[in-house]
Write a structure and sequence with these properties.
single chain, four-stranded antiparallel β-sheet, about 110 residues, 10 strands, mainly beta
Length: about 110
């Protein structure tokens, strides 16, 4: 799975992969268009004790995004940002990973890049 980490907070975040019908093809969104992020500790790979939710999710609205469209995942203090790029749009989501709250969602069509 794609991941990002912040060793100063003992934090690692994994983006779950989902199998398609073809065993060689994996996706970063489920068939119903959900992106799933697992918030864990680096040391034990268990749910992070500072996180209210060990799983963050977001309905991207596009089912079956390939692993390739993952553009960037970043952690800055309490914020976790994910940006995904497809042929037709760019999706940006920012969570407060400690509170488990989705703070910002922006979708840009290819006409606005």
């Amino acid at each position: 799975a794609a991941q990002t980490l912040d060793d100063s907070q003992n934090l690692i975040v994994f983006i779950a992969r989902h199998q398609g019908n073809d065993p060689d093809l994996t996706f970063i969104t489920s068939i119903d268009g959900r992106l799933r992020l697992d918030v864990r500790t680096l040391m034990t790979n268990e749910g992070h004790p500072c996180a209210r939710k060990s799983v963050l999710s977001w309905s991207v609205g596009v089912g079956g995004l390939h692993v390739g469209p993952l553009h960037k995942v970043e952690i800055f203090d309490d914020m976790l940002a994910v940006s995904l790029k497809t042929d037709g749009a760019m999706y940006i989501a920012i969570w407060n990973w400690k509170l488990g709250e989705l703070i910002v969602v922006r979708i840009f069509s290819s006409l606005h890049w």
